[in-house]
Design a protein that fits this description.
Layout: H1 3-23, E1 28-29, H2 39-42, E2 46-47, E3 50-52, H3 63-72, E4 75-82, E5 88-96, H4 108-114, E6 118-127, E7 134-143, E8 146-156, E9 159-161, H5 163-175, E10 179-180, E11 183-189, H6 195-211, H7 215-222
Parallel strand pairs: 1-10
Antiparallel strand pairs: 2-3, 3-4, 4-5, 5-11, 6-7, 7-8, 8-9, 8-11
Length: 230
């Protein structure tokens, strides 16, 4: 998409947002119509060959970041999982039940540098699973000698969004229905210098996790809708 088209699209979105703001006041939280959205119970501590690693430790988030996350999200979940072959994946999910303009998702592209990491590479891609593909973004990050490749995606409502334009369109779509959407950031990362191996490991972890949870939770977490409910 060239700059001129992007410019016109941004203008249209600004006008649409202005009209929506003056004529439509969404009052219904989409989250209220969902079933169980408690991350601690949705995400199993053991599935397939993966089990939670209890004594994993974690990177300390600075106080400003902690305060921001508490403001933006109604739930967060951070766990580390290990396979028998030694493969380790760190999982982080941040969920906000109110994705209005003042409470937008906080992307790893921003929060990792805020914690002192350098982002050395970023690219959009697709993560294939046995249940369908997920549009993702992959980052290579480093902090001193720590190399941490990561894969993440974001959802607004029941769909994956990439970038501000898609996010705004999704918010408008729900707004015209009188709803305030929810949203989440789903992130998996690994501490390794082998980036390609990390991405393969993360893709396998996501595939195994989504296969282990009910269809309704798959849609909630990844936007993937499957006809069978487990």
């Amino acid at each position: 998409m060239n700059r001129q088209i992007k410019g016109w699209l941004a203008l249209v979105l600004m006008v649409a947002t202005s009209i929506a703001a003056t004529t439509i006041k969404p009052t219904e939280l989409l989250a209220a119509s969902r079933g169980d959205t408690k991350l601690e119970t949705i995400i199993p501590t053991q599935f397939g060959e993966w089990r939670e690693l209890q004594s994993s430790g974690r990177l300390v988030i600075n106080p400003q970041q902690t305060e921001l996350l508490q403001k933006l999200y109604s739930q967060t979940l951070s766990r580390t999982y290990v396979r028998p072959d030694g493969g380790i994946v760190m999982l982080s999910i941040a969920y906000g039940n109110n994705q209005s303009d003042g409470l937008a998702l906080h992307y790893p592209d921003v929060c990792y540098p805020a914690q002192g990491f350098k982002v050395t590479s970023s690219q959009f891609g697709t993560l294939p699973t046995n249940l369908g593909p997920i549009r993702v973004k992959r980052l290579e990050t480093e902090l001193g000698n720590r190399k941490e490749p990561l894969t993440y995606w974001a959802t607004i409502g029941d769909a994956v969004v990439q970038g501000g334009t898609e996010t705004k369109l999704a918010q408008l779509r729900y707004g015209f229905q009188g709803q305030i959407p929810d949203g989440l950031i789903f992130r998996v990362s690994s501490i390794t210098r082998d980036t390609e191996l990390a991405y393969k490991l993360q893709a396998q972890f996501v595939t195994d996790l989504l296969a282990a949870i009910p269809a309704s939770h798959r849609k909630f977490l990844s936007g993937i809708s499957t006809p069978n409910a487990s």
